[in-house]
């Protein structure tokens, strides 16, 4: 073992005692050249309060109406990782992420990273105009998901946030009645109005040859708390309700407890 590696291990040992959120980072051994970089991945763990989010469950909107989602999807882009003194460790500007509550897991590879102690992730909710203007027929996943575009106008860009479901309009606590109402939020635009930047504490040590997962929590209870889905069952484009929903989505993302 080289003195450099020993120094790295020693600094890692100090980090392990200093922070509570360290990831296990076993360095694989094997033939050939030892890797000099690790891999960073980011995970969006969906919750409702302290409980893992369940698409099939009944929840309440911010005005106390029973609701059930059928779909929650949103784009994440422009991920930057910084250390504890805000030095930028890595830009992953070409990485586009589509979080989908229907996924069993919302963990996404960001890319290689020199060994480092990551403290924050700066992410953007939504897609900037440049990428959102790209041709959905020629781009790679997840930018080509037809479900995130309007069927009648793919040139309108991708929805940053798509939420659909049903809300209890007759006040009996379920969403099964004919009087109950479908809700749909299809939030997109081709300027910057709906983009939201979020900085979240996601501590992880990236070691050479290992993968470090940056775990975030997306609390849909926080997102729901700003919404009145009876008063505003539909929100499209970049209108006020979509701006509110994007604000709330930004607020809903935090370090996982
Ligand atoms: Ca009902
Ligand atoms: Ca009923």
Which labels suit this protein?
single chain, 257 residues, alpha+beta, nine-stranded mixed beta sheet, five-stranded mixed beta sheet, 4 helices, 14 strands, 15% helix, disordered N terminus, binds calcium ion
Topology, element by element:
Layout: H1 3-18, E1 38-48, E2 51-52, E3 59-60, E4 66-82, E5 88-92, E6 97-100, E7 107-113, E8 116-125, H2 129-132, E9 161-167, E10 181-187, E11 196-206, E12 211-219, H3 220-225, E13 234-237, H4 240-252, E14 253-255
Parallel strand pairs: 1-12, 10-13
Antiparallel strand pairs: 1-2, 1-7, 3-4, 4-5, 4-6, 4-8, 4-9, 8-11, 9-10, 12-14
The structure holds calcium ion (2 copies).
Count up the helices. Answer: 4
**Strand percentage, roughly?**
35-45%
Low-pLDDT sequence parts: 1-25
Shape: globular
What can be said about the biggest beta sheet?
9 strands, mixed
Explain the overall architecture.
This protein has 257 residues and is α+β, with helices and mostly antiparallel strands. The chain has one domain. Helix content is 15%, strand content 39%. It is built from four helices and 14 strands. The protein has helices at 3-18, 129-132, 220-225, 240-252; strands at 38-48, 51-52, 59-60, 66-82, 88-92, 97-100, 107-113, 116-125, 161-167, 181-187, 196-206, 211-219, 234-237, 253-255. Strands 3, 4, 5, 6, 8, 9, 10, 11 and 13 form a nine-stranded mixed beta sheet that branches. Strands 1, 2, 7, 12 and 14 form a five-stranded mixed beta sheet that branches. Strand 4 and strand 5 (88-92) form a beta hairpin. The longest helix is centred in the N-terminal third of the chain and has 16 residues, at 3-18. It is globular. Mean pLDDT is 89; it is low at 1-25.
């Amino acid at each position: 073992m080289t003195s450099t590696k020993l120094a790295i291990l020693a600094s890692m040992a100090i980090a392990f005692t200093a922070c509570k959120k360290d990831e296990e980072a076993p360095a694989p051994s094997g033939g050939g050249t030892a890797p000099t970089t690790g891999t960073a991945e980011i995970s969006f763990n969906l919750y409702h309060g302290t409980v893992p989010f369940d698409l099939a469950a009944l929840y309440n909107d911010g005005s106390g109406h029973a609701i059930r989602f059928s779909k929650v999807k949103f784009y994440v882009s422009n991920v930057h990782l910084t250390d504890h003194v805000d030095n930028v460790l890595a830009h992953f500007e070409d990485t586009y992420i589509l979080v989908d509550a229907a996924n069993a897991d919302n963990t996404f590879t960001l890319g290689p990273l020199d060994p480092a102690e990551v403290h924050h992730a700066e992410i953007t909710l939504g897609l900037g105009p440049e990428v959102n203007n790209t041709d959905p027929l020629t781009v790679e996943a997840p930018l080509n998901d037809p479900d995130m575009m309007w069927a009648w106008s793919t040139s309108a860009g991708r929805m940053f946030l798509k939420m659909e479901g049903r809300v209890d309009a007759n006040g009996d606590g379920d969403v099964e009645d004919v009087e109950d109402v479908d809700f749909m939020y299809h939030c997109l635009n081709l300027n910057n109005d709906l983009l939201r930047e979020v900085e979240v504490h996601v501590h992880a040590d990236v070691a050479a040859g290992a993968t470090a997962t940056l775990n975030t929590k997306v609390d849909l209870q926080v997102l729901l708390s700003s919404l009145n889905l009876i008063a505003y069952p539909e929100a499209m484009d970049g209108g006020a309700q979509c701006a509110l929903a994007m604000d709330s989505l930004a607020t809903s993302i935090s370090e996982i407890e």
